[in-house]
Amino acid sequence: MCAVDNWPTGSRAISTGWLLVWILSGSALLGAHSPLVGAGYLLIWVLQYVHCRYLACTRCYYYGKRCHMFGGDCAKLLFAQREQGKRMPDDAIVGAWWAVVTLFPVPFLIIWKSWWFLGAYLVVSLGWHGIHHGIACKRCKNSHCPLNAAPRG
To answer: CA quadruple 77, 79, 83, 85: dihedral positive or negative?
Structure first.
């Protein structure tokens, strides 16, 4: 992988790798009980990724650039750039999408009484959130993101 603006290559690989593990393990854990639910979760991820590239990435500092989530490159391929800055309801919808992809498997795994799968899923999903916030959010130049923890200058 190429170095990305102000992110070391290794941190991008760790975050992206963990994200892929989250997506695939969530789909597999759900698919072990219901292939339809597992496939539905994968479809929700695809919809979330594309929709958030429009809502967030088209008005981000990284539009058309390599970023930690591959959003800048992807957004430029799919959508025209929009004005940077905070925008409601876009920011709220992006947050809601992240809540959906994070929480969607939980009720299914509880209903199926699949406690080991639930524990594994929570470790992977919440682990990614922690790693992403600890690595990417602290270096990100997207100043309108509510999770941005980079020092303001």
So the answer is: negative
Minimal CA–CA distance to 96: which of 85, 104, 105, 86? 104
The tokens for 21 are 């593990």
Per-residue DSSP letters for 6-38? TB-HHHHHHHHHHHHHHHHHHHHHHHTT-HHHH
Enter the pTM of the model.
0.87
Amino acid at position 127, single letter: G
Query: How far is residue 5 CA from its own chain's centroid?
Result: 19
pLDDT digits (tens, 9 = 90+) for 2-52: 445 666 777 778 888 899 999 999 999 999 999 999 999 999 999 999 999
Domain map (residue ranges) of the chain: 9-135
Number of H helices, E strands in the chain: 6, 0
